[in-house]
Amino acid sequence: MDSERVPVEVAVGVLIDPDGHFLLTSRPAGKVYAGYWEFPGGKVEAGESIEQALRRELQEELGITIAAAQPWQELVMDYPHARVRLHFCKVHSWTGAFEMREAQQMAWQTLPVQVAPVLPGTVPVLAWFAAERGHVGPTHGPTA
Fold this sequence. Notes:
The chain is of the alpha+beta class. The model has no long low-confidence stretch (mean pLDDT 92). Helix content is 17%, strand content 31%. It has a single domain (8-133), classed as Nucleoside Triphosphate Pyrophosphohydrolase, CATH 3.90.79.
């Protein structure tokens, strides 16, 4: 891949419920990697902080309002269509009912995940979860 491409900044929400499940959503039809599962989020707009972008994106996509977003990990991914810097933030509290406003699907998951295919940028996050939780074995289930 071309390492000279400037990465697009992307805020990503790792929503974790009280039981330790995390939320994955499918990419909507018409988008690159449609049908792949990922953590929800989106591009950071000019003048926004990571947390502001995440708050806006999750309101637009899922209809929820998040409380604090805890910065967790960063990862640069080179996809054929774009180079992105993913800013993963853990979110433990939100209000509102989930609405899939882009006709995407959602699934609360644990390790190993049961949804597939998983977006390449999501796979390292599953490994980070496994490391934090002392999980042994595969971090993702069936692949497409």
